[in-house]
Amino acid sequence: MDYLLHTIIVALVYTVFALSLNLELGYTGLYNFGHVAFFAIGAYASALLSLAGVPVFLGMLVGVTLAGMAGALLAVPALRLTGDYFGVATLAFGEMMRLFFLNERWLTKGPMGLPGIPRPLGIHAGVSGLPLYLLLAGFLALAAFFTVYRITHSPFGRALKVVREDEFVAQALGKNVFSLKLRVVAVGSLLAGLAGALYGHYITYISPSDFTLNETILVLLCVVLGGRGTQWGPVLGAFLIIFFQEFLRFLPIPVDFGRVVAPIQGMVYGAVLIMLMLKRPAGLLPEYKV
Amino acid sequence: MMLKVENVTKSFGGLMAVFDVNLELGYTPITGLVGPNGSGKTTLFHLITGFYSLDGGRVYFSGKEISGLSPYVISRMGVVRTFQQSRVLPFLSARENLLSAVPGQKGEQLASLFFKPRRVRREEKQNRDRADEVLELIRLAPLADALSGRLSYGQQKLLELGRVLMAGPKMILLDEPTAGINPTLIRRLVDVLKTLTLQGVQIFLIEHNMPLVVELCDQVFVMDSGNLIFSGSPAEAMRDPGVIEAYLGKADHAA
């Protein structure tokens, strides 16, 4: 039962994370391969502040804001690049942030990570805190869901799609493409920061190895599997992926074999991605029927 | 002068696409731009609307210099263009295509979405009504909710014109609006163009269909290999030896 609660909480964290990536990838067509960086910034900033005695919610707020600002700062130079090059630049940024958290030991304790991150509202750090934390995560995920809904189901969301479909047309229609993208990356990073903060305070221990390219690929898979550019796609994708991942633990696999299984997981995700591209390129909940 | 193009020059590597072109559009309702393929007409449109940067010269619109401005700024000033190939937004519905063209929407500002939702909704309602009017005008109302990528090529071109209409322009630059569409739809398109001029919108169009140019245009410019070789009435253009030569080659070659 506790294990189910745990899985749902992680799925909710990834729901928020996937919703934020979907704004960029699904609605605007921006391939951000460094999205985990903002997840990490939210997690680290919030964790460091709350460990320093700042109230947890204030720490989360600062973490979220910092992630949003970092997104805008990255976007200004990175958005000068188009298409694949934007992807390469963001990929590099994601790796840079991981190395920053790994090497700036005075701040982050490097590879040791940060243990003992407090949970908000005095929620117990152990198993007994699970139901309350689930409520908190559910509430914040719902807030993120409606924020994204408001943004995408609006003239702003429509303008994003125009940019995605044809940048030249967008310009001919008087859309400031750069400004639209900048704003969407800022909001996307902000929400990724929220997911990161939610994650850090839940797990209560973070280290740089929690924020690698693997996490970016995982969240990318959530979005693509569920359905790019749809409201429910990322939610469905996040729940399917996280439940699948946790379900794998129950398979009767010998311990020695475990070392082999971990990389196999990556291969399974790769295979799922390829299958999707071939069979259901628009995901399980496609944006439109072709 | 509504539009003034002054000594405009653009080259691609060794190719002089547009060379020292000067032209002025007064208040003529419909002006044509003709010339053989590759004569630099589309390049000139790209230069006027800011999609290409100028190598030399200036462009003015109603007295203000617009050369060097971003395409979206020029569009917001009221100079809106279409593209040679139909460029609808395929995965948006016909109505959404039109709605996306409305300039200065409050709902495109994030703060308004959260703090002035009622105003955004009211504005969106007005825009939808206007889009439905335009859909009636271009006679695509029954297809309002269809993905625009599924419309026929001619319908897509009409939709593009409708989109330009929604942008509330002062001047529209149309790049071969009738290319590749059937005669019935051409008539429908011409009707829309005439309605537009009645509303005071100026039209500058690239067109290969000469009878149509003669029918519609009050003034015509002719380009040949990057140079402006003629300006005047369409009837004069048809008789001008230089224009005939540009299209058919020199008389002694022909003989």
Report on this model:
The complex is a heterodimer of chains A (290) and B (255). Chain A has one domain. In chain A, 73% of the residues lie in helices and 0% in strands. The mean pLDDT of chain A is 90. Chain A is mainly alpha-helical and 290 residues long. Chain A has twelve helices and no strands. The relative contact order of chain B is 0.18. Chain B starts with a strand and ends with a helix. Chain B has 255 residues and is of the alpha/beta class. Chain B contains eleven helices and ten strands. In chain B, strands 6-7-8-3-9-10 form a six-stranded mixed beta sheet, with helices on both faces. A four-stranded antiparallel beta sheet of chain B has the order 2-1-4-5, with helices on one face. Chain B is globular. Chain B has two domains: 188 residues, P-loop containing nucleotide triphosphate hydrolases (Rossmann fold), CATH 3.40.50; 59 residues, no CATH class. The mean pLDDT of chain B is 90. In chain B, helix 5 crosses helix 6. Chains A and B meet through helix 7, helix 8 and helix 9 of A and helix 2, helix 4 and helix 5 of B.
